[in-house]
Amino acid sequence: MSIEVGNIRKTFGSFEVLRDVSLRVEDGELFALLGPSGSGKTSLLRIIAGLEYPDSGTIHFNEEDATKAAARERQVGFVFQHYALFRHMTVFENIAFGLRVRPRETRPNEHTIREKVGKLLKLIQLTPLGDRFPSQLSGGQRQRVALARALAVEPRVLLLDEPFGALDARVRKELRRWLRNLHDELHVASVFVTHDQEEALEVADRVAIMQHGRIEQTGAPAEVYDSPANAFVYGFLGDMTLFNGEFVRPHDIEISRDTGPGPTAVFATVNFIGDAGGLVRIEVRREDTGEEIQAEITRERYRELALRVGDYVSIAARHSRVFSS
Amino acid sequence: MSAVGRKRVLRTEARWVRWVLISLAVGLTIFFIVLPLAAVFIQAFDKGWAVWQAAVTEENARKAIFLSLMVTGIAVPLNVVFGLAAAWAITRFQFKGRNLLLTLIDIPFGVSPVVSGLIFVLVFGAQGWLGPWLADRDIQIIFAVPGIVLATVFVTFPFVARELIPLMQSQGSEEEEAAIVLGATAWQMFRRVTLPNIKWGLLYGVVLCTARSLGEFGAVSVVSGHIRGLTNTIPLHVEILYNEYNYTAAFAVASLLSVVAVVTLLLKKVLEWKTREART
Fold first, then answer.
1. Contacts for B240-245 with beta carbons within 8 Å, 24 or more apart?
2. Against a cut of 0.90, is the pTM above it?
3. What is the mean pLDDT of each run of 10 residues along chain B (280 residues)?
4. Looking at chain A, which terminus has fewer C-beta neighbours within 10 angstroms, N or C?
5. Which of B180, B278, B280 sits opposite A71 (nearest CB)?
6. How far does Cα A247 stand from its chain's mean position?
7. Could you tell me if A271 and A285 are in contact, meaning their C-beta atoms sit under 8 angstroms apart?
8. Do residue B251 and residue B135 come from a single domain?
9. Which of A78, A86, A113, A191 to mutate to test the interface with B (most CBs of B within 10 A)?
10. Which range of residues forms the domain containing residue B20?
11. Do B183 and A102 touch (CB under 8 A)?
12. Are residues B128 and B202 located together in one domain of the fold?
């Protein structure tokens, strides 16, 4: 089912959280709302879910107007940032909740509920833990239970608020891949909120980058990364450094020991070397302007250059960008 | 000075300070709380079990006990409803006057019970604002049971709300939102999510509210009129017996209230522990 958000505005008191936001999420798409905290992405997600109502604008699910529909009528699955599992219920009862609260006419019988919850437990690989309470689970396990609970009601769309925000780095990466596979299997339109660009670019089919309650750019990960609409998007999607007044990715800065005179040559001294990680981070200071520039080079190149702090080098940019402000 | 050395000095100093403070605290507790409580029971059974029993089952005592239980039976459920509503409004909504409401809830704690009683006399009494109107319709509130109920409800109003507000604040509303998104109605959400989460805190509030309802003296004394067998609650009955130099009977009935106090204390401990568990 597709989601269409049209010209949404929302203010809390005098603070404008969303200023005329429009976007469309296609059926079966995994969509990321990416932005720094306070950019309005969570508010937008809550408005789609019906937990918050916009001051103006519309929400459509498959061309059907849902702007005024109550949250419980929207049939959305919502995964909260801190999971919001029912603390006094077992994992099994948490997942079964959405089925048990259905009106009598549509409520499945106990046997069907057991079967369905059993399937979901298997899907999230927690079959043996059905009798545990949320407090007895790890963060990653809680996250999966929250997801299973949302899926149990067969939602028309799935909404996830910072789904991996509270997890440590390793579990995060694992769950990320797992969510992507799960999404491909279920094929339900999903929107997730994140402030982590790496996460958004790796997992999502399309990304909307938000700032100050506005969408700055929407597009496929490669599209927004390769042709950012403005300096904010460029800076948010990756590290950047200023070189000759233009924006450059640190890995596009070339360092060489060839310090012979030339018309475009820029000379610098090495300030700092961070050689832990796949790429080596080099910070240099320009001789002429005193500006500090960040560069990233491969380990091979680093070994080849045999750089040390204080070395005199020349630098150049492979690609750079200018944005009209 | 090394860290270890400093620590040793601190500990030596703390030892006698600690000793003095502990003995002071324990001594005062024994002198002001344990001894008087023991005295109540010693006095109550001074003339034997039969006299105690007679004092407690005598007609006016029975009526006082019945009245106290009835007033409590009305005041506590009312305050559970008020307390839930107030705690819900304060923790789940942002609205103008939220802080004012929070302050108003505390007023009964700050006002002397006698003043609380006088407020009702002023409003409902024969010379009060609504007095003539009520008299025309033959409705008596002051010096009658309705007045006692009103005064008790007023005095015990903060207990449930005060207990629930911090608990519901710390638990947040995410679980409730989750329930709604999963298709629960407001009632289902309350029954299946909110109530189980707050039940220990609620029970704690109910225990405190009950103890205070049974024991309230000041406010009730002002509005009751002390009519034996009609508007006397347990504490008022104790006072009358005492004023009539009927010490044994006074202490016998008072021992009932003391038992309530001890039971409350025990329940309080258990519930405090359970509430803390629920908060994490």
1. B241/B55
2. no
3. 47 77 92 88 84 84 89 94 92 85 88 88 81 80 85 91 91 92 92 91 90 88 80 87 85 87 86 73
4. C
5. B180
6. 23
7. yes
8. yes
9. A86
10. 1-44
11. yes
12. yes
